[in-house]
Design brief:
Elements (H helix, E strand, L loop, with lengths): L1 H8 L4 E3 L2 E7 L4 E13 L2 E13 L1 H5 L5 E7 L2 E6 L5 E6 L9 E2 H13 L8 E13 L4 E15 L2 E10 L6 E2 L1
Parallel strand pairs: 5-9, 6-9
Antiparallel strand pairs: 1-3, 2-3, 3-4, 4-5, 6-7, 7-8, 9-10, 10-11, 11-12
Amino acid sequence: RIVLQIDQAMEANSFGLGGVGLALREGGYTPELVLQNVTLSDDEGLRAEFSEISTHLDPSGFWRGEFRPREVAVTGATLLVRRTRAGEFDLGLTQSQSQTDSARDLEESMRRLDAMFAHPTFALLVEVTGSGLTLVLEDERGGRASEARNANMRLGRVGDDVTLAVDGQLIGQQDGRLS
């Protein structure tokens, strides 16, 4: 049932799930689902892959059998931002840097995120955070690549606006920080 609700809310993506765990937080009032081996795919293949996603759910919806996350936390994924030779930007989220074929057009990715946030399943979602991430920046046009490890990400919503912020320590750069 959870998979069906999420799958219906993910525009143009198919949702896959390996396992689910449940915990009750804050004195047993706030349900937390831990989703394991999560994948998002579309007609072109893998879009995103996560070993674990923790979701804090709306308690009243949960007891009615509804999956309505308020907060989502992701750990240990790789976020890829690529500028193509044509000057376009692509975005991908995978478990490893070698799976860079998951990157898709950044504008399309942001449009899909906007559509996800607008869906009733995600109406109460305020933020998605990521920690312990690897951030890979590829510039095919300039022939350069940079990597930041132990990066953090915050995808947040205030009203109808969705913002993405990322920071991390650049590898090979003394005192290099990306934010």
